[in-house]
Amino acid sequence: MRYELYYWPTIQGRGEYVRLALEDAGADYADVARRGNGESKMMAMMDAAKETPPFAPPFLKVGKLVIGQTANILLYLGPRHGLAPKAEPQRLWVHQLQLTIADFVVEIHDTHHPLGPTLYYEDQRPAAKKRTSEFWGERVPKFLGYFERLIDGCGGPHLNGRRICYADLSLFQIVEGLRYAFPNNMKRFERNVPRVIELRDRVAARPNIKAYLASDRRIPFNEDGIFRHYRALDA
Amino acid sequence: MRYELYYWPTIQGRGEYVRLALEDAGADYADVARRGNGESKMMAMMDAAKETPPFAPPFLKVGKLVIGQTANILLYLGPRHGLAPKAEPQRLWVHQLQLTIADFVVEIHDTHHPLGPTLYYEDQRPAAKKRTSEFWGERVPKFLGYFERLIDGCGGPHLNGRRICYADLSLFQIVEGLRYAFPNNMKRFERNVPRVIELRDRVAARPNIKAYLASDRRIPFNEDGIFRHYRALDA
């Protein structure tokens, strides 16, 4: 089976959580919007009035099925590719972790866009600075501290014990992104979450992930995505 | 089976999407934190280092299973109570709708808390005003317009066609909340989404929902929840 992933072609963004799962699984997929007129094809699918149009990218096409919302796509892919347990209680648990990561992603995005997603960063610098200060003072410790305790509580080395799950891949991406966007803050903070960092290293060393990160399929971080490096926000 | 719902006892908040589903289903449940020492019991469950501690309320206890994240709880409850189809493609679709509603809920909350969830509204009034203006100018039309087109595209009267689903109950709550928080803005806007309003009326008329709304189990809207009425934000 060939998957078609639809996502903005120039950013990692929310699509990256799906890309990491597909890459780790060695799945056969096309990153549609990065080819030819793929981006217009993507926009046309969202404008469709009938059937089940997604609200926003990313979405995944599998045969006739179109699945939107990052966590929902991973819910579908996980048990099919050994990235989530098949039994319902554990499947819901891994999904719950992903939804908590998704909440964190929104807050990461809001550090540079506190006044709303349709304004430019340049038009909301002072607000961004305030929000970022609260982010590092309160929210990063709360979210990453939670994941640290989970790895500890389940005996590790992953969020859900011995076996990898897609939420581990997403947590890897969170660490990578925070390192890119806030190198100074992250450098100071990492000592508080050694198990999260160890998990990050473990994911980075997985052969398919390693190959992916070294390939041009991995779009570099930049200032259009979720994780943006603005020096003014990284004291 | 008896469900135990754990959520903050004095607000509707994110727990309300679960309460509406349990009430519509006529399910046997206890709203634990609203009784005796229920709130300390809830806090203790989140502090548990082992097993599967939720990041935040709401969470639902079903026997030994503890499910966190609003949309995840509804994913579990939906097909068991006739509030979502059992077949996977349609089950994922309804979940996708719920996740889109969850994204909207975050943006609604951010209108009064753009600089972060741990500061008071009183400390971020000017930023809240800016964010709210972007919210009504860009985001409400985008989100509610999307749901309007879905009801139209599927033939209605619900989001997923003839049969009710939990996302319909959540969309009802969105309309109720926007009417409470922004009566002036909402009054002007409603004419743009007649099908969404019709769906709201249809949900309100369901016997179990009607009885619930008239009962003291329904906590009134107030300025500690997601939907807050601040006159300065409702031009």
Give the topology string of chain A: H per helix, E per strand: EHEHEEHHHHHHH
E-strand count of chain A? 4
Which sheet architecture does the biggest sheet of chain A show? Answer: 4 strands, mixed
Quaternary status: homodimer
Percent range for β-strand residues of chain A = 5-15%
N- to C-terminal distance of chain A: 47 Å
- Largest contact between chains: A-B, 47 and 47 residues
Indicate the CATH class of the domain at 88-206 in chain A.
Mainly Alpha
Proper CATH architecture of the domain at 88-206 in chain A: Up-down Bundle
CATH topology of the domain at 88-206 in chain A: Glutathione S-transferase Yfyf (Class Pi), Chain A, domain 2
Would you kindly provide a written description of the structure presented here, covering whatever features stand out?
Chain A is an alpha+beta fold. The first copy, chain A, has a domain at 88-206: Glutathione S-transferase Yfyf (Class Pi), Chain A, domain 2. Chain A has nine helices and four strands. Chain A has helices at 15-24, 38-47, 70-80, 88-112, 125-153, 166-181, 183-189, 194-204, 207-214; strands at 3-6, 29-31, 59-62, 65-68. A four-stranded mixed sheet of chain A has the order 2-1-3-4, with helices on both faces. In chain A, a hairpin with a 2-residue loop joins strand 3 (59-62) and strand 4 (65-68). The model of chain A has no long low-confidence stretch (mean pLDDT 96). At the A-B interface, strand 4, helix 3, helix 4 and helix 5 of A face strand 4, helix 3, helix 4 and helix 5 of B.
